[in-house]
């Protein structure tokens, strides 16, 4: 099965003889990044991997694939809009979220990205992990840039969908007026907010999306305060109040639900909005292996309601089959560690968060009446041979 | 000028030049565990594996997977005490998979559709091998040898093959047409079957060894253990197995007004139910083991097929668990009743468990007859020197090899540490493998995968689903001839197979592929040669461990990466 070193080593020379094509996005680093182009991966593939030899442990065949790896990567039956090699932390929920959004969106899109982790870890100069046209301008203006892109494409008769990506900082706080303007002018743009509930890129400062009682570097837990004093801004309702055709929340823990929502939002002509809950192992203080587990618990406790709003009307919710106590979610994260001390305020804040979760469940009617294939337990049930999506 | 339908396009992600695999300290690897059902099966079946074929919609492949290990699935599906279901990880979640019912369903399908056994790799030099005893162990060994191309002679003292399956299992548990069909299919492989052939003395065995290059001994246990209560024995007492065999052969059992059966195995329960149906008003069963319940340790439960026990209680058999007979109440040579006493198996000073009777718990039970069902020993006729006075053979290993006799292999009930048809089938298969290797001058290799513990499963990806129970005849409709437990309907069987969690084996659910933030899981059926559909792309895998956490079936584990 293993390729011989000879076969594998052909890859670099072949790649080198191919002139690099750099017809690419407007992204600042794309030109030099593009110069490496397709040749980059195969060039480095064989030398290291063939030397590593045939994999010995069961299931480590990739070691032995050598030059075939690049070909296998290309042949994956999904669109790899966000490629490997990006610099996200281990277990990054945002990287996973962006990957899933790109897969569902497909290749015929353009992206305007606000400043934030996603922008930083995907495009370290001179490389880019994106396989679609992608632009970063500033922290506050992703929605404004996307508006302009959409207007330009419209003027030139193209139907390529424009997407705007931002973190919670650039969406809830800094880029909020630009977003509001984009929605008000009814641009045909899908805005995806990757909500990891603080300014992670700059050092975990609280944002208006940080949940109540979470500790960040600017809302530390101590003798004066039990983490953030204020509540998480209910952005989805604010977006919905713009009377947009579609605004929804989703979680990386429910990939099938997320893909469906992206496809639905892309089909709609007009401004659409997706709030995607993405745990941050570094900022939230949890094991990177538990990213999905924590995201799932956020939904199952009711702290992060997964809902769809059309023209400001509730159009659908992911019902919770059996609500979990919020402490199941909180105790896995260091940002809530102070809620499990002996301090009497710890108990009060835990109860407060439980009351907030219960409030979400009541407001959005999240409690399922009977087991449902699309509820919090049915939506990710596996079958031999793949998810039922 | 060509018009692009797309607004623009981009070059492939150039970040691929940056190999994030360098960050890794731990790496994910596939680990093929044994499902607990596999570890628990005395025959060595991997239920998880054949359930997987069933889930894929290939019942014939599922049956063939069983048939590689066990040529009698329609039989074992009916009579096995299914330790696989007791071990099933789904027990911790809702209720175990009805493995026995599915095995039976597949076995019945094979008979109905006349499926033939899957092929096996033949040997270069076929050898003559003799198998003594045509019970499940002998049949299994003969089957495994014959499909490898050896010339097998199978001898049995009785006129028909099947051993205890035919002579001692009531038709209500095992219809004889099912038994005949499965045995017939084995003998059709070209096995020479010699009925009415008993090893009369040691010269017979010596001749057998001369004529054959290896001999598998599975004579079973035909000699009832000596039974007495403090030296007392009712003059007319007869052992339970003898009565049960007589009933199956001639349809007659004694019908006293009340009877006490002493013992707690399948023979005791089968006979109790037969006598109850024959009209015995009171059938008592006195056993030192306990009924399943909170005050019985798992190892101390009656060694009976659980559903048979349930049915026996339904039919009105009176159980006296944790009791033994301390004294027989006799009037002359006639039995009037017994004195029972409570006892438990408790560790003594040396730590070994022994039975401790509790003074002051004696009770009197009146009955007209007492029947011992305390087990049997190997009939030593023909094996006197080999047995050396012991009640059973004591082979050195799981292959059944006897020290000092490289051409002799022993299995089944004659080992003394077995007691189920499935155990005998496992012995037969392992002995056949060892014989095959012995004939080629090789040693058998012990292969065992570790068993997947329940906490290695990610149950978030499964949903509760009720266990499908096969239909059971109501008590008033039960007879001596009709099978009590019916087959699962086809749709129910498929639904039940889908409940399998696939412990320790790849489900091909795409979770690892879906949830890797670094695109470092590659989906490929051709290149993944370990039974999964995926390979890890270690050039980019950062070792976060998300795939291992989100793998529903525990198939991915993280290991140190140097």
UniProtKB/TrEMBL annotation, chain A:
<feature type="compositionally biased region" description="Low complexity">
    <location>
        <begin position="207"/>
        <end position="221"/>
    </location>
</feature>
<dbReference type="InterPro" id="IPR029061">
    <property type="entry name" value="THDP-binding"/>
</dbReference>
<dbReference type="GO" id="GO:0030976">
    <property type="term" value="F:thiamine pyrophosphate binding"/>
</dbReference>
<dbReference type="InterPro" id="IPR051479">
    <property type="entry name" value="PorB-like"/>
</dbReference>
<protein>
    <submittedName>
        <fullName>Pyruvate ferredoxin oxidoreductase beta subunit</fullName>
    </submittedName>
</protein>
<dbReference type="GO" id="GO:0044281">
    <property type="term" value="P:small molecule metabolic process"/>
</dbReference>
<dbReference type="GO" id="GO:0016491">
    <property type="term" value="F:oxidoreductase activity"/>
</dbReference>
<feature type="region of interest" description="Disordered">
    <location>
        <begin position="1"/>
        <end position="55"/>
    </location>
</feature>
<dbReference type="InterPro" id="IPR011766">
    <property type="entry name" value="TPP_enzyme_TPP-bd"/>
</dbReference>
<keyword id="KW-0670">Pyruvate</keyword>
<keyword id="KW-0560">Oxidoreductase</keyword>
<feature type="compositionally biased region" description="Low complexity">
    <location>
        <begin position="25"/>
        <end position="43"/>
    </location>
</feature>
<dbReference type="Pfam" id="PF02775">
    <property type="entry name" value="TPP_enzyme_C"/>
</dbReference>
<feature type="domain" description="Thiamine pyrophosphate enzyme TPP-binding">
    <location>
        <begin position="115"/>
        <end position="274"/>
    </location>
</feature>
<feature type="region of interest" description="Disordered">
    <location>
        <begin position="205"/>
        <end position="226"/>
    </location>
</feature>
UniProtKB/TrEMBL annotation, chain B:
<dbReference type="InterPro" id="IPR028261">
    <property type="entry name" value="DPD_II"/>
</dbReference>
<protein>
    <submittedName>
        <fullName>NADPH-dependent glutamate synthase beta chain</fullName>
    </submittedName>
</protein>
<dbReference type="InterPro" id="IPR017896">
    <property type="entry name" value="4Fe4S_Fe-S-bd"/>
</dbReference>
<dbReference type="GO" id="GO:0016491">
    <property type="term" value="F:oxidoreductase activity"/>
</dbReference>
<dbReference type="InterPro" id="IPR023753">
    <property type="entry name" value="FAD/NAD-binding_dom"/>
</dbReference>
<dbReference type="Pfam" id="PF07992">
    <property type="entry name" value="Pyr_redox_2"/>
</dbReference>
<dbReference type="GO" id="GO:0051536">
    <property type="term" value="F:iron-sulfur cluster binding"/>
</dbReference>
<dbReference type="InterPro" id="IPR017900">
    <property type="entry name" value="4Fe4S_Fe_S_CS"/>
</dbReference>
<dbReference type="Pfam" id="PF14691">
    <property type="entry name" value="Fer4_20"/>
</dbReference>
<feature type="domain" description="4Fe-4S ferredoxin-type">
    <location>
        <begin position="532"/>
        <end position="561"/>
    </location>
</feature>
<dbReference type="GO" id="GO:0046872">
    <property type="term" value="F:metal ion binding"/>
</dbReference>
<dbReference type="InterPro" id="IPR036188">
    <property type="entry name" value="FAD/NAD-bd_sf"/>
</dbReference>
<dbReference type="InterPro" id="IPR009051">
    <property type="entry name" value="Helical_ferredxn"/>
</dbReference>
<keyword id="KW-0411">Iron-sulfur</keyword>
<keyword id="KW-0408">Iron</keyword>
<keyword id="KW-0479">Metal-binding</keyword>
């Amino acid at each position: 099965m293993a390729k011989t070193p000879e076969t594998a080593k052909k890859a670099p020379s072949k790649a080198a003889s191919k002139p690099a094509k750099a017809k690419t996005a407007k992204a600042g680093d794309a030109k030099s990044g593009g110069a490496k182009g397709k040749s980059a991966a195969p060039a480095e593939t064989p030398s290291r991997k063939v030397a590593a030899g045939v994999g010995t442990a069961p299931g480590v065949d990739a070691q032995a694939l050598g030059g075939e790896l690049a070909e296998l990567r290309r042949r994956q039956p999904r669109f790899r809009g966000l490629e490997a090699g990006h610099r996200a932390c281990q277990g990054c929920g945002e990287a996973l979220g962006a990957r899933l959004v790109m897969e569902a969106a497909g290749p015929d899109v353009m992206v305007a990205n606000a400043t934030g982790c996603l922008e930083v870890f995907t495009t370290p100069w001179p490389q880019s992990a994106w396989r679609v046209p992608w632009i970063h301008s500033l922290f506050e203006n992703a929605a404004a840039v996307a508006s302009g892109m959409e207007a330009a494409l419209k003027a030139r008769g193209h139907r390529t969908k424009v997407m705007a990506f931002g973190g919670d900082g650039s969406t809830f706080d800094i880029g909020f007026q630009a977003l509001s303007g984009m929605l008000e002018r009814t641009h045909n743009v899908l805005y995806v907010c990757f909500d990891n509930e603080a300014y992670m890129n700059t050092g975990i400062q609280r944002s208006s999306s940080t949940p109540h009682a979470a500790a960040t570097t600017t809302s530390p837990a101590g003798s004066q305060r039990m983490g953030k004093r204020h509540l998480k801004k209910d952005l989805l309702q604010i977006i919905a109040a713009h009377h947009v055709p579609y605004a929804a929340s989703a979680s990386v823990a429910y990939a099938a639900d997320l893909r469906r929502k992206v496809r639905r939002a892309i089909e709609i002509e007009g401004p659409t909005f997706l709030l995607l809950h993405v745990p941050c192992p570094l900022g939230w203080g949890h094991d990177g292996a538990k990213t999905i587990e924590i995201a799932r618990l956020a939904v199952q406790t009711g702290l992060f309601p997964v809902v769809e709003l059309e023209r400001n009307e509730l159009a659908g919710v992911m019902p919770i089959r059996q609500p979990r106590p919020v402490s199941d979610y909180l105790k896995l994260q260091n940002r809530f560690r102070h809620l499990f001390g002996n301090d009497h305020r710890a108990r009060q804040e835990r109860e407060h968060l439980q009351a907030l979760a219960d409030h979400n469940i009541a407001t959005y009617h999240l409690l399922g009446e009977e087991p449902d294939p699309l509820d919090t337990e049915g939506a990710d049930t596996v079958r031999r041979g793949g998810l039922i999506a | 000028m060509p018009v692009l339908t797309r607004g623009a396009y981009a070059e492939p992600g150039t970040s691929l030049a940056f190999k994030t695999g360098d960050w890794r300290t731990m790496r994910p690897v596939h680990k093929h565990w044994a499902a607990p059902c596999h570890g628990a099966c005395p025959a060595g079946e991997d239920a998880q594996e054949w359930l997987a074929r069933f889930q894929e919609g290939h019942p014939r492949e599922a049956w063939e997977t069983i048939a590689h290990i066990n040529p009698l699935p329609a039989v074992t599906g009916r009579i096995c005490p299914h330790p696989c279901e007791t071990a099933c990880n789904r027990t911790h979640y809702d209720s175990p998979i009805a493995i026995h019912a599915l095995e039976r369903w597949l076995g019945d399908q094979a008979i109905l559709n006349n499926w033939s056994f899957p092929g096996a790799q033949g040997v270069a030099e076929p050898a003559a091998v003799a198998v003594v005893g045509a019970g499940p162990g002998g049949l299994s060994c003969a089957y495994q040898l014959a499909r490898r191309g050896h010339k097998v002679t199978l001898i049995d003292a009785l006129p028909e093959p099947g051993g205890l399956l035919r002579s001692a299992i009531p038709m209500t548990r095992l219809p004889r047409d099912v038994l005949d069909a499965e045995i017939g299919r084995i003998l059709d492989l070209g096995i020479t079957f010699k009925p009415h052939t008993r090893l009369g003395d040691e010269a017979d065995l010596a001749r057998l060894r001369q004529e054959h290059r290896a001999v598998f001994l599975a004579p079973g246990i035909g000699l009832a253990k000596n039974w007495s209560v403090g030296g007392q024995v009712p003059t007319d007492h007869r052992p339970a197995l003898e009565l049960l065999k007589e009933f199956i052969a001639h349809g007659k059992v004694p019908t006293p007004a009340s009877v006490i059966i002493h013992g707690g195995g399948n023979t005791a329960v089968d006979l109790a139910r037969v006598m109850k149906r024959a009209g015995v008003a009171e059938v008592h069963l006195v056993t030192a083991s306990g009924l399943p319940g909170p005050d019985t340790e798992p190892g101390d439960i009656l060694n009976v097929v659980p559903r048979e026990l349930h049915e026996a209680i339904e039919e009105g058999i009176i159980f006296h668990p944790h009791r033994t007979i301390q004294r027989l109440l006799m009037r002359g040579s006639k039995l009037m009743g017994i004195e029972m006493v409570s006892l438990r198996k408790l560790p003594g000073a040396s730590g070994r468990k022994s039975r401790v009777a509790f003074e002051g718990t004696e009770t009197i039970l009146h009955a007209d007859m007492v029947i011992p069902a305390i087990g049997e020993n190997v009939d030593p006729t023909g094996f006197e020197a080999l047995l050396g006075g012991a009640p059973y053979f004591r082979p050195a290993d799981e292959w059944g090899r006897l020290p000092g006799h490289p051409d002799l292999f022993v299995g089944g009930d004659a080992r003394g540490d077995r007691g189920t048809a499935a155990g005998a089938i496992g012995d037969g298969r392992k002995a056949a493998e060892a014989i095959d290797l012995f004939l080629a001058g090789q040693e058998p290799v012990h292969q065992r995968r570790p068993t997947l513990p329940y906490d290695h499963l990610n149950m978030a990806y499964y949903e509760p689903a009720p266990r499908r129970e096969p239909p059971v005849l109501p008590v008033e409709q039960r007879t001596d001839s009709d099978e009590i437990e019916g087959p699962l309907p086809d749709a129910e069987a498929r639904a039940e197979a889908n409940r399998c969690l696939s412990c320790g084996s790849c489900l091909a659910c795409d979770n690892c592929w879906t949830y890797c933030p670094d695109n470092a899981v590659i989906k490929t059926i051709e290149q993944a040669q370990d039974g999964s559909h995926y390979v890890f792309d270690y050039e980019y895998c950062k070792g976060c461990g998300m795939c291992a956490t989100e793998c529903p079936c525990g198939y991915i584990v993280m290991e140190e990466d140097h």
